[in-house]
Amino acid sequence: MADLQDDLYPTAEVGRIDTAEVGRIDEPCPQEAAVVEPETYEPVSDPDAEPLIRARAVLAAHPVADGYSGLPWALRRLPWYDLDLGESAVDADVPRLRKGRVGAVFWSLDLPEAGDGDRAVGATLEQLDLAKAVVAAHDEGLCPAHTAGEVADARSRGRVAVLFGPAGAAALGDSLGVLRSLHTLGLRVLTLTGVSWAGAEGLTRFGEEAVREMNRIGMIVDLSYASAPTIRRVLTVSRAPVLFSRSAARALRSHPANLPDELLAEAGRAKGLCMVPLTAEQSGPTVRDVADHLDHVRTVAGPECVGLSGTYDTGSAHPQELADTSCYPRLIAELLRRGWDESEVALLTWGNVQRVLREAHFTAHVAQQRRPPSTATIADLDG
């Protein structure tokens, strides 16, 4: 169905995309999602206002694909809410998503109280069920999506595409069968932390098999907060691009989830995607600090390897100028002031996420022709 949707809404690629590297295979890549014509704008005399107007016009054509939102967890504590009408208790209701020109968002299923084993599996299933129910109850503003084609389709219908994930790796219960079941239920991103097979020493044999199975089914690997040995081994093993859902530049701000330059460069060579969080703790207290991180990641990893991660509704403090999802145009205006051209902004906000989704899909398509579902267990490989 996603392929049909890609055929229904074809358009030219956004920015420069390396089709030769798709999933590290030689199959062609389909065309990018449909692009809405940008809004017209008139320059004004105020030099500070003109970049903001340009930013809104660019985002009308290339909206934000937000790499991390804690909204499902934030909604658990509310007795009642209406995201379509507006909800002051959260950062990301539908009106503010639209004002900020957000076209797609990844909803985190991470649970601070999930624990491990069967408890983590059950808690993740409950959170996934809640997230689906929230989208279904707000179907005039939100739409579930699992592929690049479905994201494009949601956007063409004027809705914000919601992708489910990341979830913590503990949600698998060390079972590849559970991994496949979670994918069937809609989970699309898994963070490789908090488990014995992806720890401080790197991936175990079972961990490598888990990555290969994620590639086979189209589950995207998230490496934020993973150890350096795990990151390096995943970049070697994975045939599909990886995400860093909440990672900025450690050279500018020391934080355990931020990446040193050598890992940023390795991620860039592997065509991974580093999504810079809009938080004071990781990126700094001002919009200029966030822009500094985006500049740095673009320089070290490349323009095709940098994205945005609002991390709204996670309890994190945000720069004053970026208090909620309606504020994305302020960040894009700052980048335009710094000389980013529109093609680079288009990759940052939309094109790079679409590339990762497409490549994950096509890598899975090829892998499924080559190998059956893995029946390996952690006892077989690591016992």
Automatic annotation (TrEMBL):
InterPro entries: Metal_Hydrolase (IPR032466), Pept_M19 (IPR008257)
Pfam families xrefs: Peptidase_M19
Name recorded for this polypeptide: Dipeptidase
